[in-house]
């Protein structure tokens, strides 16, 4: 039932799949992947410098920073120095990211 949405996102360059030309629709999304998806969907360029110590060298680092400079994310812990890019995004976290990204009222 999600094939049309996946194809639409692929046509816009928002999603590129997981491996070997596949999308892997049942796989969970990591926080790093989510940052890249949001940044692509909103047309945000990668940003620097990278404030989170656990994203250096990651393909998602620039997207994570693009979210951070816009106040979409403040990291994954109280210190504000970690983003936890390999952690899965919960539905609750995704709701908060979307509300902030689209300027909706919390």
List keywords for this structure.
mainly alpha; 0% strand
What features would you describe in this structure?
The protein is mostly helical and 106 residues long. It has helices spanning 3-11, 31-42, 61-69, 91-101. Helix 2 crosses helix 3. The radius of gyration is 14 Å and the shape is globular. It starts with a helix and ends in a 5-residue tail after the last helix. The model has no long low-confidence stretch (mean pLDDT 93).
**Helix-strand sequence:** HHHH
Largest sheet: none
Rg over CA atoms, rounded to whole Å, is 14 Å
| Helix proportion | 25-40%
The SS-based structural class is mainly alpha
Number of helices: 4
Q: What percentage of the residues does DSSP assign to strands (E)?
A: under 5%
Can you describe this structure in just a few lines?
The protein has 106 residues and is an all-alpha fold. The chain has helices at residues 3-11, 31-42, 61-69, 91-101.
List the helices and strands and how they pair.
Layout: H1 3-11, H2 31-42, H3 61-69, H4 91-101
């Amino acid at each position: 039932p999600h094939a049309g949405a996946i194809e639409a996102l692929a046509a816009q360059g928002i999603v590129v799949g997981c491996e070997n030309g596949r999308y892997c629709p049942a796989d969970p999304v990591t926080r790093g992947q989510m940052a890249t998806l949001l940044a692509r969907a909103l047309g945000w360029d990668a940003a620097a410098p990278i404030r989170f110590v656990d994203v250096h060298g990651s393909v998602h680092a620039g997207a994570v920073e693009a979210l951070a400079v816009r106040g979409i994310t403040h990291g994954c812990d109280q210190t504000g120095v970690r983003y936890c890019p390999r952690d899965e995004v919960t539905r609750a976290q995704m709701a908060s990211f979307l509300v902030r990204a689209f300027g909706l009222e919390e």
